[in-house]
Amino acid sequence: MERAPSWSRLPTGQFTLANSDHRSHPAQNWALHRFPRWRNANARHSDVLAAQRKERVRIRSEKGLRWGGCPLATAT
């Protein structure tokens, strides 16, 4: 079983409050609750995301890179 990244194990409230410049906790709380609503309302179209992914794959293959930036092994 994969472990979650270390940043995902942090309590969200602690992480966001410690690294924000909101005027108060209620203002930060409002922003935390408002963001998912904004993100859902402004979601990118799945066809656009698929086209972007396909283009990234094409560029990586031209450069000879795999995921993570590792070069492809050359066939001998």
Describe it:
By secondary structure, the chain is an all-alpha fold. 55% of the residues lie in helices and 0% in strands. The protein has helices at 12-18, 25-41, 46-63. The longest helix is centred in the C-terminal third of the chain and has 18 residues, at 46-63. The chain is elongated, with a radius of gyration of 20 Å. The model has no long low-confidence stretch (mean pLDDT 75). This is Integrase. Residues 1-22 are annotated as: Disordered. Residues 9-19 have a biased composition (Polar residues).
Topology, element by element:
Layout: H1 12-18, H2 25-41, H3 46-63
The DSSP helix count reads: 3
Radius of gyration: 20 Å
Q: Average the pLDDT over all residues and give the rounded result.
A: 75
Would you report the number of β strands?
Answer: 0
Estimate the helix proportion, in percent: 55-70%
Q: Give the SSE order as H and E letters.
A: HHH
Would you tell me the structural class of the helices and strands? mainly alpha
Shape by Cα distribution: elongated
| Major β-sheet profile | none
Uncertain runs are none
Strand content: under 5%
Organism: Streptomyces coffeae
Protein name: Integrase
Overview in brief:
This protein is mainly alpha-helical and 76 residues long.
Name some characteristics of this structure.
Integrase; 76 residues; elongated; single chain; 3 helices; mainly alpha
